[in-house]
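Q: Got a minute? One more chain.
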Amino acid sequence: MKSTTRRPPLSRERILRAALDIVDEEGLEAISMRRLGQALGVEAMSLYNHVPNKAAILDGVFEAVLAELPAAKPEASWQAFVRARSRALRSVLRAHPDTLPLFATRPAVTPASIHHVETVLEALRGAGFEVDEALSALQVMMAFVVGHTVATHAPTRPDEESHPAYLQLSEEAFPRVRELARVLERHDVEAEFEFGLEAMVSGLEAHRKRRPPARR
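A: Always. Here it is, folded:
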């Protein structure tokens, strides 16, 4: 008898997993309903029963990356919580660098993605930040983590790369840039991330201490 292998049923979760795999392997620009259908072995039209459009797929890829975050744990302080979530977010973004443009340009849309926003806001509100301040703190945190990860880990094509010749600049006109160029090769971008993270947390703490704790 001829054996047949049954495919698992099509579902939103399976579609999003396939979409993330495509982004990881081929880049964000490769995502289309047709390409997803090919990857899943189905007609593109059948995807619309689970995801209404490409925007929903991109929101789902955003969600699928955040799903790899470890569960938020209670920390000794809000500062420790912000540090832990920032490091965890950076870790999953580094694992999926081709998704970085989504995090740089799109908000959390799906309930599963918004859950991660909720946990950070709860920690900030519990620490005494007012609503507007908590929003600003969250935005600053995301801008720093995503921005630094884009700057240090976003993939580039060979024909798009630039290699500035800092050491060929005039020592008289650019003494500090020349000084910097001599340490670039041994500069640790992960230590740089930690430096920026501490500066961000310290700045938020200084702001919080300048006024009485807010009511929740």
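A: The first helix runs from residue 12 to 26.
Q: Perfect, thanks.
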